[in-house]
Design a protein that fits this description.
single chain; 110 residues; mainly beta; 8-stranded antiparallel β-sheet; 8 strands; 47% strand
Length: 110
């Protein structure tokens, strides 16, 4: 997987980005778009959230995967574990994977 942080320049594809925010009540929101540059397997870690952004309990987030022409979408899931690992759980990402969700963070490491 390749992902690009908000505001990335250069080789970041249009629409690609990774955003994760946490408010003063530790409500965390993840919104990211990833470009598939490998042959990932279900269960592979996509990325790891920094300290303070991990959920109190494991959470499942909606993941939408797109075909090569980005004309057909398939619904899947990504898991966010208490150690911060975001793992591809189900779906069939051919080109792009979009993940969105929110949860209560543990707030540790603030």
């Amino acid at each position: 997987w390749s992902f690009y942080f908000a505001g990335a320049v250069g080789n970041a594809p249009a629409g690609a980005g990774a955003y994760f925010t946490r408010d003063s009540a530790n409500q965390t929101e993840i919104n990211l778009s990833l470009i598939n540059t490998s042959s990932p397997a279900v269960g592979s870690t996509i990325f790891t959230l920094p300290p303070g952004y991990q959920p109190e309990n494991p959470k499942m987030l909606t993941a939408v995967s797109w075909n090569v022409g980005q004309t057909v979408a398939t619904i899947g899931q990504a898991a966010v574990f208490t150690n911060g690992n975001v793992v591809w759980y189900s779906g069939s990402p051919a080109t792009r994977l979009d993940i969105y969700g929110s949860y209560q963070a543990n707030g540790l490491g603030q």
